[in-house]
Amino acid sequence: MTWVLDNLDLIAELTLIHLRQSIIPILLGFVLSVPLGWVAWRYKLVRSSIITITGLLYTIPSLALLILLPSLFGYNLFSDTNLIVALTIYAIALLVRSVADGLDSVDPGVRQASTAVGYGAFRRFFAVELPLAGPVILSGLRVAAVSTISLATVGILVGVTNLGYLFTNGYQREIIAEIFAGVVAVMIIALVVDGLLVLAGRALMPWVRTGSGERAVRVGVQEAAA
C-alpha cells in the first residue's frame, strides 16, 4: 500500500497513456468493422470467408503480431502506432461478426416499409438498419473494448509504455503492490469504458429499454413519408 501511495503520479500517468492507446483502436475497429460487417451480411457468398478470415486474426499471438507488423509496414517496433495497429486488428476480429449478426436481426418487414416510403439504400442503412442492429453491435463493442484494454498491456513486452510497465517492473523488483496496482488500474479503465458504452447505448437507443425498437423506427419511417 505504501508503494501505491508513493507512486500515485506514475500510476495516473500510465493510466492516461493506457487509456489513449486503448480508445483509439476501439474506435478504429468499430469504424472499420461496420462496412466489413455490412458486406458480410449483404453478400452471402462471401459472408463465411469474411467472418472466418477476420475471426482468425484473433488467434494470432499478440507478441508475434507486435513483432511482425513493423517489418510489414515499416514503422517503429517500439512506437504507440505498432500497438494501436495490432489492437485495431483484434478489435476488427471481434466486431465484424457482431455487425453482421446485428444486421441479420433486423426485421425484413421494417426494411420493406422504409423502402416503400422512399428510403434509398444509404439512408435506410443509417436511419433504419444500423439503429435496430445497435443492441447486438453494442454487445460486441463492449466485449471488444474490454479485450482491447486488457491486451494493451502486452505492449510493454516490445517497449511500448503503459500500465503493463507496472506488471514487468513489479515482477522484476518483486513488488507485489506494484503488480496489484496495475491490475486494479486496468480493471478500473475497463469498467469505466464499459459503463460509458452502456450509457451511450441508452442515450442513442432509448427504445431498447422499452423493447419498442422496431415500432419506434416504423413510426419514424411513417413520419418521414408524411
From TrEMBL:
Organism this protein belongs to: Microbacterium aquimaris
Location in or out of the cell: Cell membrane; Membrane
UniProt topology in membrane: Multi-pass membrane protein
Gene3D superfamilies, per database record: MetI-like (1.10.3720.10)
Pfam families (UniProt xref): BPD_transp_1 (PF00528)
Protein name: ABC transporter permease subunit
Membrane spanning stretches: 23-41, 53-75, 81-100, 144-167, 179-200
Keyword terms, alphabetized: Membrane, Transmembrane, Transmembrane helix, Transport
Tagged with keyword Membrane: yes
UniProt keyword Lipid biosynthesis present: no
Top-level lineage group: Bacteria
Domain ABC transmembrane type-1, residue spans: 15-197
Family: Belongs to the binding-protein-dependent transport system permease family.
